[in-house]
Amino acid sequence: MTTKSAGGPLLSQDEIGLLISSAGTAPSMHNTQPWRFEINGPVVDVILDEARGLPAADRSGRLILIGLGAATFNLRVAAASLGYETTFATEPDPDRPDIVTRVFLGSRRSPTPSLAALYGELRRRHTYRGPMMDLDVPLRVRDRMAAAARSEGGDLRWLDAAGRRQLGGILRVADDLDLHDEDRLTERQQWVGGERDVEGVPADALGPLPIGPATVRDLSAGFERPGRGVAAFEQQPLIGILTTPGDRPSEWLRAGMALQHALLAATSYDLAVSFLNQAVEYIHLRSRVQELVGQGARPQVILRVGYPARASAGTPRRSWDRTVIQGRPLEAPRAR
Fold first, then answer.
1. d(CA 121, CA 103)
2. Which CA distances in Å does 77 have to 9, 185, 326?
3. pLDDT means per 10 residues in the chain (336 residues)?
4. What NCBIfam families does UniProt report for this protein, alphabetically (predicted)?
5. Cα 74 from Cα 24, distance rounded (Å)
6. Which domains does the chain have, with CATH numbers?
7. Closest by alpha carbon to 265, among 150, 105, 93, 157?
8. SS3 of 44, please?
């Protein structure tokens, strides 16, 4: 099967499968995969699946939109690997607020090097929740990740030792709040732990429990998860805070694209990344994190980065064809 434009066949079923399955490898909070896709000729709409939101942990929908932005970036990478140039618009249709981004496929040429080079990292990247090795990440690699984020409208700022200490205090407060928030714990239990084949975070992807104090998020907090094991975690982790200049939904989407570009860059250097977003999920704590990066920047995501000390399991994904809404054929738009 192909989609058609006025000029004839555009996307084959194999191409559609490659594009949508690639988009679906993006990270999302608790791996809810809150996306659907509609294909209209050379246009792919990325659509918010509200049934996969997290109203207790993400009341504003900010982190869900960051996940959708990451899926959009993956779609652009996959299209580049097929030779398609892409442009995109955020919030493209006032009558369809569920469409968060619209990706336009332009002329097909040879693969676009700047994005196509990342295609091989899409399925290697996964969230790593184990200990890191006691190795410094070279400055050139940190600069590469920061440049990747900047190219999508974000800014990745690395914390110094004083900043890490301050963040540690904020994380401890956030972890304590998590343990006493019944709504969050109930919601998390729907998505975290156990055996999961298509969505959520299975028990074998949670990582070991830290032997002592550690800068890591334990998603199983509040629940028994037998058989996880324990490990000593690094004492001086590399921590970056991804920021945007503003804080509108369109910038949350941009933050997701910046995040995913930085994550794929990290993966290309065999780095592992996990998230410390409990510190930005609470409004009053997010304002404290903002003090670490300056008033001109809005913190969106907190990253723990390093070289993994052990192998780890990834999280499952839904079959791509379960996320597609077949749209009506449209004229191929002029690239813009």
1. 21
2. 21, 35, 22
3. 46 94 98 97 95 96 98 97 94 95 89 87 97 96 98 97 97 95 94 94 92 91 73 95 97 98 98 98 97 93 97 93 73 39
4. Rv3131_FMN_oxido
5. 8
6. 2-123+318-326 (3.40.109.10), 139-306 (3.40.109.10)
7. 150
8. strand
